[in-house]
Write a structure and sequence with these properties.
Distance between the termini: 21 Å
Structural class: alpha+beta
Order of helices and strands: EHHHHHHEEEEEEHHEEEEHHHEEEE
CATH topology: Penicillin V Acylase, Chain A
Helix content: 25-40%
Strand content: 25-35%
CATH superfamily: Penicillin V Acylase, Chain A
Number of strands: 15
Radius of gyration: 19 Å
Length: 362
Protein backbone atom coordinates (compact mmCIF):
# COMPACT_ATOMS: atom_id res chain seq x y z
CA UNK A 1 0.00 0.00 0.00
CA UNK A 2 1.41 3.40 -1.04
CA UNK A 3 2.02 5.67 1.91
CA UNK A 4 0.56 9.12 2.43
CA UNK A 5 2.94 11.92 3.31
CA UNK A 6 2.26 14.51 5.98
CA UNK A 7 3.14 18.13 5.20
CA UNK A 8 3.26 21.25 7.32
CA UNK A 9 2.97 24.42 5.26
CA UNK A 10 3.01 27.97 6.61
CA UNK A 11 3.54 31.50 5.44
CA UNK A 12 2.18 34.01 2.98
CA UNK A 13 -0.15 32.72 0.23
CA UNK A 14 2.62 32.74 -2.41
CA UNK A 15 5.01 30.91 -0.09
CA UNK A 16 2.38 28.30 0.81
CA UNK A 17 1.65 27.70 -2.86
CA UNK A 18 5.37 27.42 -3.59
CA UNK A 19 5.80 24.79 -0.86
CA UNK A 20 2.88 22.81 -2.24
CA UNK A 21 4.43 23.06 -5.71
CA UNK A 22 7.80 21.80 -4.54
CA UNK A 23 6.09 18.84 -2.88
CA UNK A 24 4.31 17.83 -6.08
CA UNK A 25 6.90 18.78 -8.70
CA UNK A 26 8.55 15.39 -9.14
CA UNK A 27 5.26 13.53 -9.64
CA UNK A 28 3.87 16.19 -11.98
CA UNK A 29 6.96 16.18 -14.19
CA UNK A 30 7.36 12.40 -14.14
CA UNK A 31 3.77 11.58 -15.04
CA UNK A 32 1.17 14.33 -15.22
CA UNK A 33 2.72 16.36 -18.02
CA UNK A 34 2.67 13.28 -20.29
CA UNK A 35 -0.87 12.22 -19.38
CA UNK A 36 -3.91 12.41 -21.67
CA UNK A 37 -5.67 14.40 -18.94
CA UNK A 38 -3.06 17.14 -19.07
CA UNK A 39 -3.19 17.27 -22.87
CA UNK A 40 -6.98 17.46 -22.77
CA UNK A 41 -6.96 20.46 -20.47
CA UNK A 42 -4.11 22.28 -22.21
CA UNK A 43 -6.22 22.49 -25.39
CA UNK A 44 -7.97 25.41 -23.67
CA UNK A 45 -4.85 27.59 -23.55
CA UNK A 46 -5.62 31.08 -24.83
CA UNK A 47 -9.36 30.45 -24.90
CA UNK A 48 -12.02 32.97 -23.90
CA UNK A 49 -13.37 30.77 -21.04
CA UNK A 50 -9.86 30.37 -19.59
CA UNK A 51 -9.25 34.13 -19.77
CA UNK A 52 -12.61 34.88 -18.12
CA UNK A 53 -11.92 32.49 -15.23
CA UNK A 54 -8.42 33.91 -14.75
CA UNK A 55 -9.79 37.45 -14.55
CA UNK A 56 -12.40 36.47 -11.96
CA UNK A 57 -9.87 34.72 -9.75
CA UNK A 58 -7.45 37.64 -9.86
CA UNK A 59 -10.22 40.15 -9.12
CA UNK A 60 -12.22 38.31 -6.46
CA UNK A 61 -9.68 36.03 -4.78
CA UNK A 62 -6.27 37.74 -4.95
CA UNK A 63 -4.83 35.64 -2.12
CA UNK A 64 -5.72 32.40 -3.93
CA UNK A 65 -4.29 33.94 -7.11
CA UNK A 66 -1.03 34.37 -5.18
CA UNK A 67 -1.21 30.72 -4.01
CA UNK A 68 -1.54 29.67 -7.66
CA UNK A 69 1.42 31.82 -8.64
CA UNK A 70 3.50 30.21 -5.92
CA UNK A 71 2.27 26.77 -6.95
CA UNK A 72 3.40 27.38 -10.53
CA UNK A 73 6.82 28.57 -9.44
CA UNK A 74 7.24 25.62 -7.11
CA UNK A 75 6.26 23.24 -9.90
CA UNK A 76 8.61 25.05 -12.33
CA UNK A 77 5.80 25.33 -14.86
CA UNK A 78 4.22 28.26 -16.72
CA UNK A 79 1.54 29.96 -14.66
CA UNK A 80 -1.13 29.72 -17.37
CA UNK A 81 -0.69 25.92 -17.51
CA UNK A 82 -0.98 25.51 -13.75
CA UNK A 83 -4.03 27.76 -13.64
CA UNK A 84 -5.65 25.73 -16.43
CA UNK A 85 -4.95 22.48 -14.59
CA UNK A 86 -6.70 23.89 -11.57
CA UNK A 87 -9.67 24.71 -13.81
CA UNK A 88 -9.79 21.20 -15.30
CA UNK A 89 -13.27 20.24 -14.12
CA UNK A 90 -14.69 23.55 -15.32
CA UNK A 91 -13.42 22.96 -18.86
CA UNK A 92 -13.61 19.20 -19.30
CA UNK A 93 -16.36 16.85 -18.10
CA UNK A 94 -13.93 13.89 -18.12
CA UNK A 95 -11.57 15.38 -15.54
CA UNK A 96 -9.95 12.50 -13.58
CA UNK A 97 -11.57 12.93 -10.17
CA UNK A 98 -14.01 10.58 -8.45
CA UNK A 99 -15.00 9.93 -4.80
CA UNK A 100 -17.81 8.50 -2.67
CA UNK A 101 -19.19 10.08 0.51
CA UNK A 102 -21.34 8.61 3.30
CA UNK A 103 -23.31 11.19 5.30
CA UNK A 104 -24.64 10.33 8.77
CA UNK A 105 -26.73 12.97 10.56
CA UNK A 106 -27.75 12.76 14.19
CA UNK A 107 -29.18 14.84 16.99
CA UNK A 108 -26.08 14.15 19.07
CA UNK A 109 -23.68 14.88 16.24
CA UNK A 110 -22.89 14.18 12.62
CA UNK A 111 -20.33 12.01 10.83
CA UNK A 112 -18.94 12.11 7.29
CA UNK A 113 -16.93 9.34 5.65
CA UNK A 114 -15.26 9.87 2.31
CA UNK A 115 -13.26 7.85 -0.22
CA UNK A 116 -10.88 10.08 -2.16
CA UNK A 117 -10.63 8.54 -5.62
CA UNK A 118 -8.10 9.87 -8.08
CA UNK A 119 -5.44 9.00 -10.63
CA UNK A 120 -3.80 5.73 -9.47
CA UNK A 121 -0.42 6.93 -10.69
CA UNK A 122 -0.47 9.46 -7.88
CA UNK A 123 -0.61 6.73 -5.24
CA UNK A 124 2.29 7.40 -2.89
CA UNK A 125 2.61 11.00 -4.12
CA UNK A 126 -0.27 12.59 -2.20
CA UNK A 127 -0.32 14.02 1.31
CA UNK A 128 -2.33 15.32 4.19
CA UNK A 129 -1.25 18.95 4.45
CA UNK A 130 -1.52 20.93 7.69
CA UNK A 131 -1.60 24.53 6.50
CA UNK A 132 -1.23 27.83 8.35
CA UNK A 133 -1.53 30.39 5.55
CA UNK A 134 -1.49 34.08 6.42
CA UNK A 135 -5.01 35.48 6.35
CA UNK A 136 -6.72 32.07 6.57
CA UNK A 137 -7.71 29.91 9.53
CA UNK A 138 -5.40 26.90 9.83
CA UNK A 139 -6.70 23.84 8.01
CA UNK A 140 -5.71 20.29 7.14
CA UNK A 141 -6.56 18.86 3.72
CA UNK A 142 -5.70 15.97 1.42
CA UNK A 143 -3.62 17.34 -1.46
CA UNK A 144 -2.67 16.12 -4.92
CA UNK A 145 0.51 17.05 -6.79
CA UNK A 146 -0.06 20.17 -8.85
CA UNK A 147 -3.37 21.23 -7.30
CA UNK A 148 -4.65 23.75 -4.80
CA UNK A 149 -5.80 22.46 -1.44
CA UNK A 150 -9.54 22.28 -0.82
CA UNK A 151 -11.07 20.06 -3.49
CA UNK A 152 -10.84 16.74 -1.62
CA UNK A 153 -11.52 16.58 2.13
CA UNK A 154 -10.57 19.13 4.75
CA UNK A 155 -11.17 20.39 8.28
CA UNK A 156 -10.45 23.92 9.45
CA UNK A 157 -9.52 25.35 12.84
CA UNK A 158 -12.59 27.58 12.48
CA UNK A 159 -14.72 24.43 12.74
CA UNK A 160 -15.70 23.71 9.13
CA UNK A 161 -15.60 20.16 7.72
CA UNK A 162 -15.88 19.59 3.98
CA UNK A 163 -15.71 16.69 1.56
CA UNK A 164 -15.85 17.13 -2.21
CA UNK A 165 -17.15 14.92 -5.01
CA UNK A 166 -16.65 15.51 -8.71
CA UNK A 167 -19.73 16.26 -10.79
CA UNK A 168 -19.27 15.78 -14.51
CA UNK A 169 -21.57 18.59 -15.63
CA UNK A 170 -21.66 19.43 -19.32
CA UNK A 171 -22.70 23.06 -18.85
CA UNK A 172 -20.13 25.60 -17.70
CA UNK A 173 -20.52 29.37 -17.91
CA UNK A 174 -18.00 32.09 -17.24
CA UNK A 175 -17.43 31.94 -13.51
CA UNK A 176 -15.00 31.29 -10.70
CA UNK A 177 -13.32 27.88 -11.09
CA UNK A 178 -14.79 25.28 -8.77
CA UNK A 179 -11.43 24.47 -7.15
CA UNK A 180 -10.92 28.14 -6.31
CA UNK A 181 -14.37 28.27 -4.73
CA UNK A 182 -13.68 25.25 -2.54
CA UNK A 183 -10.29 26.65 -1.52
CA UNK A 184 -12.10 29.87 -0.57
CA UNK A 185 -14.56 27.87 1.52
CA UNK A 186 -11.71 26.89 3.83
CA UNK A 187 -11.61 30.54 4.94
CA UNK A 188 -15.32 30.54 5.90
CA UNK A 189 -15.99 31.15 9.62
CA UNK A 190 -19.34 29.35 9.66
CA UNK A 191 -21.72 27.10 7.76
CA UNK A 192 -23.98 30.00 6.65
CA UNK A 193 -20.93 31.93 5.43
CA UNK A 194 -19.78 28.95 3.34
CA UNK A 195 -23.20 28.55 1.72
CA UNK A 196 -23.49 32.30 1.11
CA UNK A 197 -20.12 32.35 -0.67
CA UNK A 198 -21.20 29.58 -3.05
CA UNK A 199 -24.54 31.22 -3.78
CA UNK A 200 -23.10 34.72 -4.25
CA UNK A 201 -20.19 33.98 -6.56
CA UNK A 202 -20.54 33.27 -10.28
CA UNK A 203 -19.70 29.58 -10.72
CA UNK A 204 -18.06 27.78 -13.63
CA UNK A 205 -17.98 24.00 -13.13
CA UNK A 206 -19.71 21.87 -10.51
CA UNK A 207 -19.04 19.89 -7.36
CA UNK A 208 -20.96 18.05 -4.70
CA UNK A 209 -20.00 19.06 -1.17
CA UNK A 210 -20.82 17.69 2.23
CA UNK A 211 -20.52 20.59 4.66
CA UNK A 212 -20.73 20.64 8.45
CA UNK A 213 -19.52 22.73 11.37
CA UNK A 214 -18.53 21.81 14.90
CA UNK A 215 -21.03 24.33 16.33
CA UNK A 216 -24.01 23.03 14.38
CA UNK A 217 -25.96 19.78 14.30
CA UNK A 218 -26.79 20.48 10.66
CA UNK A 219 -25.25 18.35 7.91
CA UNK A 220 -25.58 19.84 4.43
CA UNK A 221 -25.43 18.21 1.01
CA UNK A 222 -24.63 20.87 -1.59
CA UNK A 223 -24.62 20.46 -5.35
CA UNK A 224 -23.51 23.42 -7.43
CA UNK A 225 -22.86 24.18 -11.05
CA UNK A 226 -22.93 27.22 -13.28
CA UNK A 227 -26.74 27.27 -13.43
CA UNK A 228 -27.72 26.37 -9.85
CA UNK A 229 -26.58 25.91 -6.27
CA UNK A 230 -28.77 23.44 -4.40
CA UNK A 231 -28.48 23.08 -0.61
CA UNK A 232 -30.22 20.21 1.17
CA UNK A 233 -30.17 19.28 4.85
CA UNK A 234 -29.26 15.62 5.33
CA UNK A 235 -31.87 14.08 7.64
CA UNK A 236 -31.14 10.38 7.14
CA UNK A 237 -27.99 8.37 6.36
CA UNK A 238 -27.14 9.00 2.72
CA UNK A 239 -24.49 8.30 0.12
CA UNK A 240 -23.26 10.40 -2.78
CA UNK A 241 -21.05 9.40 -5.71
CA UNK A 242 -20.18 11.50 -8.77
CA UNK A 243 -23.38 12.71 -10.33
CA UNK A 244 -25.99 15.27 -9.34
CA UNK A 245 -29.01 13.90 -7.48
CA UNK A 246 -30.94 16.99 -6.39
CA UNK A 247 -33.77 18.36 -8.57
CA UNK A 248 -32.06 21.65 -9.42
CA UNK A 249 -29.18 19.86 -11.14
CA UNK A 250 -30.00 16.21 -11.79
CA UNK A 251 -31.92 17.01 -14.97
CA UNK A 252 -29.18 19.24 -16.36
CA UNK A 253 -26.75 17.71 -18.89
CA UNK A 254 -24.20 15.59 -17.06
CA UNK A 255 -22.08 12.50 -17.55
CA UNK A 256 -22.95 9.59 -15.25
CA UNK A 257 -20.27 6.93 -15.55
CA UNK A 258 -20.93 3.27 -14.91
CA UNK A 259 -18.84 3.43 -11.77
CA UNK A 260 -20.65 6.45 -10.36
CA UNK A 261 -24.07 4.94 -11.01
CA UNK A 262 -23.19 1.58 -9.48
CA UNK A 263 -21.43 3.04 -6.44
CA UNK A 264 -24.51 5.15 -5.78
CA UNK A 265 -26.87 2.16 -6.03
CA UNK A 266 -24.65 -0.14 -3.98
CA UNK A 267 -24.15 2.44 -1.26
CA UNK A 268 -27.89 3.05 -1.01
CA UNK A 269 -28.50 -0.72 -0.83
CA UNK A 270 -26.03 -1.08 2.04
CA UNK A 271 -27.69 1.78 3.91
CA UNK A 272 -31.08 0.13 3.39
CA UNK A 273 -29.74 -3.16 4.74
CA UNK A 274 -28.52 -1.44 7.91
CA UNK A 275 -31.88 0.30 8.37
CA UNK A 276 -33.82 -2.95 7.87
CA UNK A 277 -31.61 -4.74 10.40
CA UNK A 278 -31.88 -1.90 12.89
CA UNK A 279 -28.11 -1.54 13.20
CA UNK A 280 -25.87 1.50 13.09
CA UNK A 281 -24.36 2.42 9.74
CA UNK A 282 -20.74 1.27 9.40
CA UNK A 283 -19.53 3.97 7.05
CA UNK A 284 -16.02 2.55 6.69
CA UNK A 285 -17.42 -0.87 5.78
CA UNK A 286 -19.50 0.77 3.06
CA UNK A 287 -16.48 2.64 1.70
CA UNK A 288 -14.43 -0.58 1.79
CA UNK A 289 -17.08 -2.55 -0.11
CA UNK A 290 -15.89 -4.39 -3.23
CA UNK A 291 -18.86 -6.71 -3.73
CA UNK A 292 -19.40 -5.51 -7.31
CA UNK A 293 -16.18 -6.57 -9.05
CA UNK A 294 -16.58 -4.30 -12.07
CA UNK A 295 -17.71 -1.20 -10.19
CA UNK A 296 -16.71 -1.51 -6.51
CA UNK A 297 -17.09 1.33 -4.04
CA UNK A 298 -13.49 0.88 -2.94
CA UNK A 299 -11.51 1.06 -6.17
CA UNK A 300 -8.11 -0.53 -6.62
CA UNK A 301 -8.23 -2.11 -10.09
CA UNK A 302 -5.49 -1.21 -12.53
CA UNK A 303 -8.13 -1.25 -15.29
CA UNK A 304 -10.76 0.84 -13.49
CA UNK A 305 -13.06 2.19 -16.21
CA UNK A 306 -12.79 5.77 -14.94
CA UNK A 307 -9.01 5.39 -14.46
CA UNK A 308 -9.41 6.12 -10.73
CA UNK A 309 -8.40 4.35 -7.53
CA UNK A 310 -9.17 5.07 -3.89
CA UNK A 311 -6.10 6.92 -2.58
CA UNK A 312 -7.30 7.69 0.96
CA UNK A 313 -10.36 7.54 3.20
CA UNK A 314 -11.41 10.05 5.84
CA UNK A 315 -13.83 9.57 8.73
CA UNK A 316 -14.80 12.94 10.19
CA UNK A 317 -17.14 13.44 13.17
CA UNK A 318 -18.16 16.06 15.68
CA UNK A 319 -17.62 15.08 19.30
CA UNK A 320 -19.08 16.80 22.35
CA UNK A 321 -16.54 17.61 25.02
CA UNK A 322 -16.75 19.35 28.39
CA UNK A 323 -14.21 21.94 29.39
CA UNK A 324 -12.56 21.58 32.77
CA UNK A 325 -12.43 25.01 34.44
CA UNK A 326 -9.52 25.95 36.64
CA UNK A 327 -11.90 27.61 39.12
CA UNK A 328 -14.17 24.99 40.76
CA UNK A 329 -17.04 27.48 41.24
CA UNK A 330 -17.33 28.04 37.47
CA UNK A 331 -19.73 25.60 35.83
CA UNK A 332 -18.32 23.50 32.98
CA UNK A 333 -19.47 24.63 29.53
CA UNK A 334 -20.32 21.99 26.89
CA UNK A 335 -18.57 22.49 23.58
CA UNK A 336 -17.65 20.42 20.54
CA UNK A 337 -14.63 19.55 18.47
CA UNK A 338 -14.06 17.75 15.19
CA UNK A 339 -12.19 14.49 15.58
CA UNK A 340 -11.20 12.62 12.47
CA UNK A 341 -8.89 10.06 11.00
CA UNK A 342 -7.33 9.30 7.64
CA UNK A 343 -6.92 5.76 6.33
CA UNK A 344 -4.91 4.45 3.43
CA UNK A 345 -7.61 1.73 3.20
CA UNK A 346 -11.00 2.06 4.93
CA UNK A 347 -10.81 -1.45 6.40
CA UNK A 348 -7.36 -0.91 7.89
CA UNK A 349 -6.29 1.20 10.91
CA UNK A 350 -5.88 4.93 10.35
CA UNK A 351 -2.48 6.39 9.56
CA UNK A 352 -3.30 9.87 10.92
CA UNK A 353 -5.57 10.91 13.78
CA UNK A 354 -6.64 14.54 13.90
CA UNK A 355 -8.41 17.03 16.15
CA UNK A 356 -9.51 20.10 14.25
CA UNK A 357 -6.73 21.07 11.89
CA UNK A 358 -3.89 19.43 13.85
CA UNK A 359 -2.47 15.93 14.04
CA UNK A 360 -2.52 14.08 17.33
CA UNK A 361 0.94 13.10 18.48
CA UNK A 362 1.86 9.47 18.89
Amino acid sequence: MARLSYLRIAGAPFDAGFALGRFGAAAVHAYRLQSPAWAGVMRWRGSAPAAAMAALVQERFPRIWAELQGLAQGLELPFDEVLLWNCRGDLWALAPDGCTTVQIPGAAGWAIAHNEDGDPRFAGHCALAECAIDGSPPFAAFVYPGSLAGHTFAVTAAGLAMTVNNLRLREADAGVPRMVLTRALLDAPSLPAAVELLQRQPRAGGFHLTLAHRDSAELLSVEFGSRACSVRAVTAPSVHANHALQPALCERPQLVTGSSGQRQRRGEALLAQAAAAGVAVDALAILGDAEQPRFPIHRSAADDEDAENTLATALIAVQSVRSVPSVPSVRSVPCAQIVWQVHEHPLQPPVFRMVGAAKLRG
